[in-house]
Amino acid sequence: MSGSESPGVARRAELARGYAAARERLDAAVTAAGRSRGDVELLVVTKFFPAVDVRHLIDLGVRTFGESREPEASRKIDEIRTGGADDAAVAAAEFDMIGSVQSKKAKSVARWARTVHSVDRAKVVDALSAGAEAALDAGTRSADLHILLQVSLDGDPQRGGVTVEDLPALAEHVRGAGGLALRGLMAIAPVEGAAEQWMARAQQIHTDFLVDHPDARELSAGMSGDLEEAVAHGSTCVRVGTAIMGRRPLVSQ
């Protein structure tokens, strides 16, 4: 950073470089897979990073963000909205919940989230349904809360995610819940094994799932380390944090 360059200007330039590189990488993966650019959303994961970083990204044209902790997300989003209440770009920004949701915090999440990517239990479905219906009644939501079911690719429930065997029952539970709309699946590749193997597995599970749920077309799969493999296997949303944001701050905000 030059002596005349403020930290804010330097940080914005850093984020611009990270986002441009991730966008270029995603576009190359989409082209290599024979798909169209609009087929895959780039969800910028801003968990642990401050509201000012999100504002920089909004100014750079980013409109979709991923958060994973509550109440951090609520505080951050409120700060962003309050600081740019008359800003059409801020108003157009959307935030998804990509982390595990605690039932006691579901009401807050349902107030701000466009989509929850990490649903894997009926108890969480019920809590999100109650929160979404309350938000719709209060006018703090204008549409149903979108739900992606997190599926376990290796069948280990300790890693998070519903097993393939239990997926149909959970999907039906979502479909019967008020204020929610089932939109698809989310998957995280286990550390052990090749990303190619796990993304092929995710694609097959999603293909089978579509037989009974043809409107659940979203597949949220792929992060900074494996987005190419995910795009090659049908991902419609890649969740990229580190490659754009850099290293996590020492003190979260």
UniProtKB/TrEMBL annotation:
Molecular function via GO: pyridoxal phosphate binding
Natural source organism: Gordonia mangrovi
Pfam family, one: Ala_racemase_N
Modified residues (N6-(pyridoxal phosphate)lysine): K47
Protein name: Pyridoxal phosphate homeostasis protein
Family: Belongs to the pyridoxal phosphate-binding protein YggS/PROSC family.
InterPro entries: Ala_racemase_N, PLP-binding_barrel, PyrdxlP_homeostasis
Residues annotated as domain Alanine racemase N-terminal: 38-249
